[in-house]
Amino acid sequence: MTVLVSEMSGLARDAFFQKKEGGKRPISESQADLLLATVVDESGALVLDESDVASLRAQGAIAMDRIAAVAVRLNDMGPAAVEDAVKNSDAAPSGDSLSDSASTSESQ
Questions:
Q1: Rounded to the nearest 5 degrees, what angle is found at the Cα of 93, between the Cα atoms of 38 and 76?
Q2: Would you say residue 85 lies in a domain?
Q3: Model confidence over 42-94: pLDDT tens digits?
Q4: Residue 84 covered by a domain
Q5: For residue 75, which of 105, 41, 34 has the smallest C-alpha distance?
Q6: Which among 21, 38, 44, 70 counts the fewest CB atoms within 10 Å?
Q7: d(CA 7, CA 19)
Q8: What is the rounded CA–CA span in Å between residue 18 and residue 14?
Q9: Is residue 10 part of a domain?
Q10: pTM value > 0.85
Q11: Considering the domain boundaries, does residue 107 fall inside one?
């Protein structure tokens, strides 16, 4: 079986981390939530919803680990990245811009 895993939108990532703020949760529950936000069909549309959580949690741990690991890698959600995001979430914006404009050094 092929499973397609996609990058999350910023809003989906925010929602995922808000669910985690409630404290310790079973690993299978966190993995199921991650898969809800990242498993897509060929057109890129999400294929899972909250009604799938129980059946996802009942799947084999190795399969869930493999898919969740891909989702974590694609979304740069390793432990260091998560800590950095939490530290920077309330920080003042830096001078860096997210626009596609060329920086001063690139345009010269």
A1: 25
A2: no
A3: 999 999 999 999 999 999 999 999 999 999 999 998 776 656 655 655 544 44
A4: no
A5: 34
A6: 21
A7: 18
A8: 6
A9: yes
A10: no
A11: no
